Amino acid sequence: ASRFNALKADAAWQKVWEDRATFAARDDSPKPKSYVLEMFPYPSGKIHMGHVRNYTMGDVLARFRRMQGMEVLHPMGWDAFGMPAENAAMERGVHPGGWTYENIATMRAQLKRLGFALDWTRELATCDPAYYGHEQALFLDLYAAGLVYRKESAVNWDPVDMTVLANEQVIDGRGWRSGALVERRKLSQWFLKITDFADELLDGLGSLEKWPDKVRLMQENWIGKSVGLQFRFVLNLPSRLREGSGEGLSSTQTPEHSLPQPLPQAGGEQSVEVFTTRPDTIFGASFVAVAADHPIAQGLADNPQVAAFIARCKQGGTTAAELETQEKLGFDTGLTATHPFDPTWQLPVYIANFVLMDYGTGAVFGVPAHDQRDLDFARKYDLPVTRVVGDGDRTDPLFEGNEAYTGPGALVNSRFLDGMDIDAAKRAVIGRAEAEGWGHGTTVWRLRDWGVSRQRYWGTPIPIVHCDDCGAVAVPADQLPVVLPEDVSFDIPGNPLDRHPTWKHVDCPACGKPARRETDTLDTFVDSSWYFIRFASQPQDKPFDKAVAESWLPVAQYIGGVEHAILHLLYARFWTRALRHIGKLDVAEPFAGLFTQGMVTHETYKSASGKWLSPEEVRDGTEIATGEAITLGRIEKMSKSKKNTVDPTGIVDQYGADAVRWFMLSDSPPERDLQWSESGIEGAWRFVQRLWRLFDAVEPAEGQDKALDRKLHQTIAGVAGDIEALQFNKAVAKLYELVSAIEKAAPSASRTAAIRALVRIVAPMTPHIAEEAWAAMGAEGLIADALWPEVDPALLVEDEVTIAIQVNGKLRDTLTIPRGMAREAVEAAALASPNVLRVLDGKPPRKVIVVPDRLVNLVA
Ligand code: ANZ
Ligand code: ZN
């Protein structure tokens, strides 16, 4: 028997597929259509094992759908704009475009080596004007429809480099290059009105049955619909302050319990509106807090202490995580707020850094016992902490410890609310507020509009011109695309578009006077919000053809990393709905099925001196270079920082594409992490060789092997079901079993048929060896165009069963009998069992109970 020469077969079949455009999807096909898509890669330099795993899974499904007779769209492209290209430009003086296209060439070649059934005729790169020009047109369509607007918004400002930083460039509140403390600055920026679709995006989640529950939940939380109470606190200036001369504002002010007077215009405000989702906790309130940008804080800013505090609040980045973990800071304004249910109860009013201006009303009341931020704040400033929701048998007002109680319970220490559960108490408070006219129930959304402006070069230029007379003017359609200038420099920080000598100087499209181009570019998430539509249809003169795109969409199965569970998927869902809103595409949800795969992990190694070592630097527990013993670190996601990556291309060169693909599918359930190991890939390689020994030796033979026939048909059906459910590791296990059964079977017509069918069953997973065997067996056409073997349902059922024989309920024997054997025959067989005869001791049983195909119980 010959050996399977994987490298030769890989190259030969990949060339055939390419030459014949085997995987080019036909828009006009009469077959049912299926769109299989994996998240397109960022061209960072080389493909990594995570890509290999992701694309292998998608490929198995795509090939399987073809075998089911479907017209499959399985495209590939490049999410090619983004910061790493600019970083490379800054660090190495290369042009971002050159760097990107070189990476694309490398990675395309690497992907091709894996034999993916991709339609390369539809390849696209988002940094190509032929792509982003259409994106600009769509942006302007949304602008015309009122779904795009401009407003002031905070950015991360690096005061040393004098540049705007992306969130990723802010590390522990400091600029990644300069190390300077980052400030929040306001800039005029472009926004997409995703909040107009908040309700739809939330409701739509209900229809996404083929999405993981956890992703739907993450989206739901991100959209964050909350129902609550909005109401006004009356503000007062305590008498001591009003009377005191020059005492000003103090940060140690404690509330006065004398009846307060309404505020005479301090800071210009007499009341403060707050929003709460927990009106039930109103009797646990111990302070009121406003955002640093709130009019009350701003109105007090002529006091230098307040101004200094507001400035301090603006330090630090803009990410939610950063805001969450920042130290809580407060400034006591000296004002007090009257409790809505008790005119004698005054709450101190603080300016606090954890209150955001653009959520709710920018002001809150704090309930430390039942909100963690409030508790951190109250402990720091020594404010009262009163329990108002019972926690099991803890119902007393005194709340100890530093962990807020946010669970369920009955209201306590809360006057007329006592004894109610949280929901009833919420309703009661909202009811009183509405009846008494000081507040009303409302809905708020956590979702913000999508800020798409980036002050960067390597992105889609926003197609707007600013004119002193006409304002923001859309670039006319016949002047699209607005192309990025090539001649840019990265030697100084900031946006090269803004610094470019000529690019931004244009005439106003409306009045013809000198005007300026917008120099912001679009967030790269815009690029990935519609690429799947462009894959489905890519005419030259417009972004897509409606009917053609609709014939493919929605994507039947989308596969990618869970790190995109929120933003990318939400933005793509929004973009799709926005296009539907303006009549461009009648699709509600872009991705009918979603699967998020696990990561590829590897052991980590550390040298005696504590450096990370790559797998190539280690042999038999020692560092090759020094001969010193290494320490084994944890098994972690492959990453450059831990040096535990394995380059897929080297592995493909060594073992062939099929072995790599097989290993990617075999060891773990696809949603879990897969640990890369040398022994794993070797095992996969041996399996491929085992397949070849069967394929290579197949010969006509006589005779039937019923057991093998059954095994084969069960495998055909089982593997189909597993692929359908994306449970590839289960399919792999079934194939191991079938191969073992074939290996053990004596030559027969059944065995020969099983080997021929096996070629087709493994084809989605190991397509190269399958093509090779298919051709060697003289079959017609390509296996890539073959159909999935048919299942004989009669062979799916076992025709023998093993039943239990009990005497007085105790197991005495088992019998293997034909399925569905008649009761009398089963009874006779049981009575003939030597074990049963011995236990019955020659006496006939008093009663015989037969459960067909399961058991016989003899009562003695
Ligand atoms: C009193 C209270 C008591 C609250 C309690 C929570 C727990 P979600 O559910 O995310 O919508 N909040 C309101 N506006 C805020 C703002 N601009 N900045 C920071 N926090 C703000 O959160 C709503 C809750 O977040 C509101 O309910 C409010 O605190 C706070 F035991 O009011 B709560
Ligand atoms: Zn003008």
From TrEMBL:
Keywords: Aminoacyl-tRNA synthetase, ATP-binding, Cytoplasm, Ligase, Nucleotide-binding, Protein biosynthesis. It is an enzyme of class 6 (ligase). Pfam families: Anticodon_1, tRNA-synt_1, tRNA-synt_1_2. InterPro entries: aa-tRNA-synth_I_CS, aa-tRNA-synth_Ia, Leu-tRNA-ligase, Leu_tRNA-synth_edit, M/V/L/I-tRNA-synth_anticd-bd, Rossmann-like_a/b/a_fold, tRNAsynth_Ia_anticodon-bd, Val/Leu/Ile-tRNA-synth_edit. PROSITE patterns: AA_TRNA_LIGASE_I (PS00178). It comes from the Bacteria. ATP binds at K640. A motif ('HIGH' region) lies at residues 41-51. Residues 705-821 form the Methionyl/Valyl/Leucyl/Isoleucyl-tRNA synthetase anticodon-binding domain. Residues 244-270 are annotated as: Disordered. It catalyses: tRNA(Leu) + L-leucine + ATP = L-leucyl-tRNA(Leu) + AMP + diphosphate. Transmembrane segments: none annotated. Its EC number is 6.1.1.4. Residues 267-432 form the Leucyl-tRNA synthetase editing domain. Belongs to the class-I aminoacyl-tRNA synthetase family. This is Leucine--tRNA ligase. It comes from Sphingomonas qomolangmaensis.
